[in-house]
């Protein structure tokens, strides 16, 4: 818990219990190294308030996390792969930028909510787990060639304004909403939505 200085973890971390990091000063939380469980899936909860959160090292690559939960943040940058049973961002006031693949292996799936979202890498939820992306004031921008995929779980993209979408894949349902804007094709001639 910090009210003044940035929480910067530059070395490799191994979680031996469930951990909650709370930033009440708006200075942010950053991970420069890897983050893993100790063999038992552990939950990492981050409440960054008005601060930013960044992941520079792989999360869960050696031993997956249980749940990765971001309960508050401004900007969020995922610059290395993330593997957890579930990945949830419940709210935010900035932009979430996905620059590396995020994989959820459990029933929680992936649920990301921020003011805006930029997706430059894949989102993967296995089995029947759902995958949802929501923006509260801005756009959802998927880069061409990126994908969001589940086994049979529902895929939902809900943008407050516009949405540029690439590939969405599931054997379940797909829901697309652009509240105050257009839904644009970011995938060229490739398939945008594959569902059954």
What report would you give on this structure?
The chain has 196 residues and is an all-beta fold. Helices cover 0% and strands 51% of the residues. The protein is built from no helices and 23 strands. The chain has strands at 7-9, 13-15, 19-22, 29-31, 35-37, 44-47, 53-55, 65-72, 76-78, 82-89, 95-98, 102-114, 116-119, 123-125, 131-135, 140-142, 147-150, 155-159, 163-165, 167-169, 174-178, 183-185, 193-194. Strands 3, 6, 8, 10, 12, 14, 15, 17, 18, 20, 21 and 23 form a twelve-stranded parallel sheet that branches. Strands 1-4-7-9-11-13-16-19-22 form a nine-stranded parallel sheet, with no helix packed on it. A two-stranded parallel sheet has the order 2-5. It is globular, with a radius of gyration of 16 Å. The model has no long low-confidence stretch (mean pLDDT 94).
């Amino acid at each position: 818990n910090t009210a003044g200085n940035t929480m910067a973890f530059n070395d490799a971390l191994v979680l031996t219990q469930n951990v909650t990091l709370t930033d009440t000063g708006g200075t942010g939380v950053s991970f420069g190294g890897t983050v893993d469980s100790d063999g038992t899936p552990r939950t990492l909860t981050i409440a960054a308030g008005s601060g930013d959160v960044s992941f520079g090292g792989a999360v869960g690559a050696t031993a997956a996390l249980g749940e990765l939960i971001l309960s508050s943040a401004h900007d969020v940058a995922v610059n290395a792969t993330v593997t957890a049973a579930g990945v949830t961002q419940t709210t935010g006031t900035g932009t979430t930028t996905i620059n590396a693949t995020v994989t959820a292996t459990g029933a929680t799936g992936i649920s990301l909510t921020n003011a805006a979202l930029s997706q430059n890498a894949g989102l993967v939820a296995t089995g029947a787990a759902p995958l949802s992306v929501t923006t509260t004031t801005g756009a959802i921008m998927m880069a061409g060639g990126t994908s969001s995929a589940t086994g049979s779980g529902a895929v939902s993209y809900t943008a407050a304004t516009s949405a540029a979408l690439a590939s969405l894949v599931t054997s379940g349902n797909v829901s697309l909403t652009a509240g105050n804007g257009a839904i644009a094709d970011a995938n060229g001639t490739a398939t945008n939505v594959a569902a059954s």
